[in-house]
Design a protein that fits this description.
about 450 residues, alpha/beta, seven-stranded mixed sheet, globular
Length: about 450
């Protein structure tokens, strides 16, 4: 018996055989189902492409400085290479850096931190968060996020099998200030809640949670014995509000045993490409992360860790007329924020209050967005929002890259971000002044049409 395959398109086939042949010829899925859409275009891919396609644009989108690190930081990197730190080190963290971090956090948290069992060194803070969730979250667990929240959180929670539960921060329109709704936070805790993610100083708003707000969160945690906290503190050394100060959440009574503190060096020393971060917490929470590390990479870059162990301590010394590098850093960013805020006000935007980090949120309600931008969808924004459309307009017509706020909200809350845009001020004064001038000129010209 001989079957002429060319005839299959002409002959009727049994339903079962037809389905089998169709399935066999279909291409395999491109991505694992567990990604749940995490592999699709994002706000970062779209606005990164817009910046690349418009090389003359002023980029206030992504948060990386446009200057070199301090000389003492670069010198320690050279020293680490010259001293021969080229091979693998301990997977859970280079001993010298782990020891420095343990000593510093012992002071920060008011308890003795063990370098070998309570510190894990990771490839940046993003991996610190990823491994914390992978090591400690079970499928079906819930993670509470205070929105707007860094969009990376949502994807990492989903990849770990968890569910993000949003609790919006409340914007006081009269004072342009973000506030915690402690009652809403408490109401969001349920039987499946495993973590609350706290980010202070906060991205994207720049909010530094007050001592009262920190205590309110701690009180919620105390009422729910199963709940743990991830405290993301990557901007801890960039607090520039006159009356603001950084509070380590794990230092609050009863929170040390229930908190994983995450931080990194990239934002503090303008070395975002070094990619050295860490987790600090009790052995019950950190040792599972340590055990997971060798399955992800054998170790973080040895010379970078060696250098950073020295850099963290050198930064405590006087720097450029200030008591320390950390003090100088806060003053420098306070000036840059003031420069950008003045420029945005001149362009008809309303800067919101923010006391830390290097992002400024602005209310753009007074700027008209033409219908051609509102009606134009993109792969990353199939349902166009006003803030996204406005940022595309600013990129294409004003030559300034900024980031819309709606991606920092879950689907149900995106409307809260429709008038808000995030600007990065970790840029040179010349860059900030150029962006301000472009925005002011564009808005003035638009109103004159």
């Amino acid at each position: 018996f001989h079957l002429d395959i060319s005839m299959l398109g002409l002959l009727p086939l049994p339903v079962g055989l037809s389905a089998t042949l169709t399935a066999a010829s279909a291409p395999p899925p491109a991505a694992a189902l567990r990604l749940g859409g995490s592999d699709k275009p994002t706000v970062w891919s779209e606005f990164g492409a817009l910046a690349a396609e418009n090389p003359g644009a002023v980029n206030l989108g992504q948060g990386f400085p446009d200057w070199s690190p301090p000389d003492f930081v670069v010198a320690e990197a050279h020293a680490a290479l010259d001293q021969g730190f080229h091979q693998y080190t301990r997977p859970a963290g280079h001993p010298s850096l782990a020891s420095v971090l343990a000593s510093r956090y012992s002071r920060h948290l008011g308890r003795e931190v063990d370098a070998m069992t309570e510190v894990a060194i990771t490839v940046g803070a993003s991996q610190a968060l990823f491994l914390t969730l992978q090591a400690l979250l079970d499928p079906g667990d819930e993670v509470i996020l205070l929105e707007p929240a860094f969009d990376l959180y949502y994807g990492q929670i989903r990849l770990a099998g968890g569910t993000a539960v949003p609790v919006p921060l409340q914007l006081d329109e009269q004072e342009s200030q973000w506030r915690l709704d402690a009652d809403a936070l408490d109401a969001a805790v349920g039987p499946r809640t495993k973590f609350i993610v706290l980010n202070s100083p906060h991205n994207p708003t720049g909010k530094v949670f007050s001592a009262g707000e920190m205590e309110a969160i701690a009180e919620v945690v105390r009422r729910h014995p199963r709940v743990l906290v991830i405290s993301d503190e990557v901007y801890k050394y960039i607090v520039h509000g006159e009356e603001a100060s950084h509070q380590h959440f794990a230092a609050l009574p009863g929170m040390g045993e229930r908190t994983v503190t995450i931080s990194s060096a990239g934002k503090t020393f303008s070395i975002t490409g070094w990619q050295v971060g860490w987790c600090v917490g009790p052995p019950a929470l950190v040792q599972p992360i340590q055990r997971l590390l060798p399955f992800v990479q054998f170790c973080v870059s040895t010379p970078m860790q060696q250098a950073l162990g020295r850099v963290l301590s050198l930064a405590d010394e006087p720097y450029r007329g200030k008591p320390s590098y950390y003090s100088w850093l806060c003053d420098m960013y306070a000036d840059k924020r003031a420069t950008l805020a003045a420029g945005l006000e001149a362009a008809g935007m309303r800067p919101l209050q923010g006391e830390g980090g290097f992002f400024l949120m602005a209310d753009t309600s007074a700027i008209e967005v033409p219908q051609r931008f509102l009606q134009h969808t993109t792969p990353a924004a199939p349902l166009m929002t006003r803030d996204w459309a406005l940022c595309r307009m600013l990129a294409l017509e004003a030559g300034v890259i900024a980031i819309p706020c709606s991606p920092f909200y879950s689907a149900a809350n995106k409307k809260r971000g429709e008038h808000l845009v995030r600007f990065a001020f970790c840029k040179s004064d010349e860059t900030l002044r150029a962006a301000s001038a472009r925005l002011e000129g564009f808005v003035a010209a638009s109103r004159g049409r």
